Amino acid sequence: MTSTDPVSKLTLAPGEIDFYNQFGFLVIPGLLTEEAAALLRDEVMEIMRLIGLSMDKLKQTPEYLAGSHIDALVNSQNLRNIASQLMGGPSSVYMPF
Predict the structure, then answer these.
(1) Which of 24, 45, 50, 82 has the highest CB neighbour count under 10 A?
(2) DSSP state of 88
(3) Residues 6+ apart with CB under 8 A from 67
């Protein structure tokens, strides 16, 4: 279990925000460390195995454990801060599933 924020604390440059506003996406190098990405991937694959999903296709599911690496990503304050910068105002977690 983890309580560490897996998302790097970043301040976006005005040009990055402009790019996002123009094209609707932004690649953010260094958003996650390779280690954090690997831990998240391993956790996702384990959840897929446990709930009987095929290992070759991801499926949206709300199933993850509180205190897990996925939970840390979903509830990342640093990720919300980046979203707030891109949206030009406060951001929150939206989970429609």
Answers:
(1) 82
(2) T
(3) 1, 2, 3
Radius of gyration of the chain (CA): 15
DSSP string, 18-87: HHHHHHS----TTSB-HHHHHHHHHHHHHHHHHTT--TTS--------TTSHHHHHHT-HHHHHHHHHHH
Residue 2 has pLDDT above 60, yes or no: no
Is the pTM higher than 0.85? Answer: no
Q: Where does the pLDDT of residue 94 fall: very low under 50, low under 70, confident under 90, or very high at 90 and above? A: confident
Tokens 């709300």 locate to: 62
